[in-house]
């Protein structure tokens, strides 16, 4: 068993305050934790993996392909591999648990 507490995780932060940490990985799934401060731009590119985002704190809008949806604590969003997506209009610091399948092999920002 692997466990973690979000409030105890130390994330390396970029100059704009965005942070990401790979939390765990298995043969079929990986989990990360991401933070975007209010007002920043989410610069992520489509990934080779399916993703599920679980918003644990904050308010923003997510765009997935041509669709947009406001998100807040409790929102769960599925994004298929290869689909353009990003958070924008981040009104309150956004804290998100990210589930990846197959496991994410980090090569750039989330």
UniProtKB/TrEMBL annotation:
Residues 35-100 form the Cupin type-2 domain. InterPro entries: Cupin_2 (IPR013096), RmlC-like_jellyroll (IPR014710), RmlC_Cupin_sf (IPR011051). This is Cupin domain-containing protein.
